Amino acid sequence: MKAQSILRPMTWLDIEEVVLLEAQLFPEDSWTAELFWSELSQVPDSREVMVAVQDNHIVGYVSLRFVGNEGDVNTIAVSPEHQGQGIGRTMLEWLESTAEKRGITQIFLDVRSDNESAIAMYNNHGYERIDQRRDYYATDVHAFVMRKRLAP
Predict the structure, then answer these.
(1) Looking at residue 3, what is its pLDDT?
(2) Could you give all domains of the chain from N- to C-terminal order, each with its CATH number?
């Protein structure tokens, strides 16, 4: 039986572990500790940031950025060995629930064109591809811009 993961707010003490996971997941364009510090400094005014914890280790993280009635999935990530266990789905559902509570009526995100599992998850949650940023991540690796409309 697999251990259950829990979601909790990210704290300053989590940044070191999150940055290590970020570097593992996104070695060519990973966020720095300073970027995560910046995210946390904007909670709760324009950000909500959570970590997924399993067996006392961070296995994922998610950040919602919001302005007015629009929100952005700033980042969402799950460690490779914990992917496929529903952690990403749980974090996305938390993000959408939090967005609705804040009166957000649409959520936007960018996803790598080569990240088929993430694209499938977003499609399954009602996100639609509305644009593309060519060669955004690398040559021939585009950013698909996706949107989900929420009930007002």
Answers:
(1) 65
(2) 6-149 (3.40.630.30)
Contacts of residue 46, defined as CB under 8 A and 6 or more positions apart, other chains included, come to 65, 66, 67
DSSP code at position 91: H
Angstrom distance (rounded) from CA 147 to CA 108: 4
pTM strictly above 0.85: yes
Q: Which of 58, 73, 151 is nearest to 115 (CA)?
A: 73
| Coil/strand/helix, residue 68 | coil
What token pair was written down for 12?
Answer: 């300053």
Q: Side chain identity at 152, as an amino acid letter?
A: P
Cis omega (within 30 of 0) for bond into 44 = yes
